[in-house]
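Hi support team,

I submitted a single chain yesterday and got back a structure, but I'm not sure I'm reading the C-alpha cell output correctly. Could someone confirm the output below corresponds to the sequence I sent? I've pasted both exactly as they appear in my results page.

Thanks,
R.
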Amino acid sequence: MSETFLDGKVVVTQPKQGFRSGLDAVMLAASVPARAGDSALELGAGAGTASLCLMARVQDLALIGVEIDPALVELASTNAAANGMQARFVAADIFRLPPELKSDFDQVFCNPPFHGEGQVSPDAARAKALSDGGQLSDWLRLGLQRTVSGGFFTTIIRADRLAQALTALPTEGVSVLPLWPKAGEPAKRAIVQVRKASRAPFALLPGLVLHREDGASTPEAEAVLRRGAALALSGARL
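Hi R., thanks for writing in. Yes, this is the structure output for that exact sequence:
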C-alpha cells in the first residue's frame, strides 16, 4: 500500500497489515536539526518513512536506518530508491549493532515502541512494532550513546511515558515539545530532544496544537505535514 507524505514529495509503500507510519514519523523527521553533510542514524526505521521525510528536507545526509525486520528493510530500501534518495537500510537488532555501526552520529532519531503492559495490539505485527517489552529506557540510552558529543538525539513518544523517558536521559540539554491533539486537550505525544554534553537547562516548550475544533489541521501543523517545515526545539540549530 503506497502513501504520500509532505504533499506528495515522499511516496512510501508500507505493509497492508501491521504497523504503518503516519503523523508521528513526519513530526519526528521535522524535529531532527540536521544540516547538509551530517551523518544520521534512525533506530527502528520500519519502511523508512521518517528517514525519507528528513532527507526530503535536508540534502546530502549520510543516513543509515536500522530495522530488525528484514522484509521492512527491503521495503525501506525500495522506497528510498523510488524517491531518488541515497539512504542505506540495514537489518539488525539495535541492541546488537554490527561493528561498522558502533560509531557516533551527528543525528540519531527514533520512534521507539512505547506501549507498555496491558496495551498490546491483537495484531501480531503491530504488537511487535509498538510493544516496548520494558525496553523504552534502553532505546533512549542507546540513542544517546550513538550520538556524537554536541550532536542531537531526537525521539517521539507517548506523552504518558514522558516521566519514564526523562529518568533515562541527562538533566541538562533536554527539550520537550508536547503535541496537543486540539487546544485544551491533554497531549498524546511528545517530542524529546537531547543535545549531548550540553549544559543548557531543561526546556519544556509551548508545544504544537495539531487540529482545530472542526478537525482540520492547524496552520502550524499543516506547515509541517504538507510543506515540510522544520520544528525547531530549544537549543537546536535549525
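A quick pointer for reading it: The CA atoms of residues 65 and 89 lie 5 Å apart. Let us know if anything else looks off.

Best,
Support desk
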